[in-house]
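README: folding subset

This subset contains proteins for which both the sequence and a predicted structure token string are available. Records are stored as plain text. Below is the entry for Integrase catalytic domain-containing protein (258 residues), shown exactly as it appears on disk.
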Amino acid sequence: MYKDVKELYWWPNMKREIASYVSKCITCSKVKAEYQKPSGLLQQPEIPQWKWERIAMDFITKLPRTSSGNNAIWVIVDRLTKSAHFLPIRESYKVGKLSKIYLKEVVSRHGVPVSIISDRDSRFTSRFWRALHRALGTRLDMSTAYHPQTDGQSERTIQTLEDLLRACVIDFGGNWDTHLSLAEFSYNNSYHASIKAAPFEALYGRKCRSPLCWAEIGEKELTGPEIIQETTDKVSQVRKRLEAAAPFKRSMKEKVLV
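--- output ---
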């Protein structure tokens, strides 16, 4: 929020006041996890050479079931640009169904990655999943609860996204999956400290062109079709949750993990 507001306004103690405002988000306090530095030495994984070459993924589960039957979110993040896809799924999906979604949403858009970092979810360790990626030429790197330091950057990014998405689920209620694309849009167009840019800008080399200045939502009355107003309201909601989910107060040493 601070990065967006400072582009347009200034007042004394602005950063402190924005931090105070964000910290009072009641919804976010319900879902925000405690962050603990992993024990042991952090193992810095290989730095990606290109976009969507090395990715990380995880499931956010035990969400309220929607009318479409979705009760989980599959989060897939590019480790270089931090751009991400939020895919609504059912926890009951078998690995075959997930593989089709992966090919449609990731491979068709970005190509085949060199490596994937994930936890040891049974779907990621299944024979089918391993065979698929062996055929594609993708290396699977598994982290474990005993070695959380495997990839601090990916773990930190996904944890922040989990806070954001759980807050959005509370806000959007029973039809949260119909608004998930707006959460993805808001995240990908929000400033990311580790890359000093928005993920969209890092991915495409330019700022996202949108029909209005998202930073000024709520400051002016918008005209146009009802769907534009509804979308504007939802995006504004998501951005507030994103700012509250981000670790606003953190030492410089911990920021390296983002």
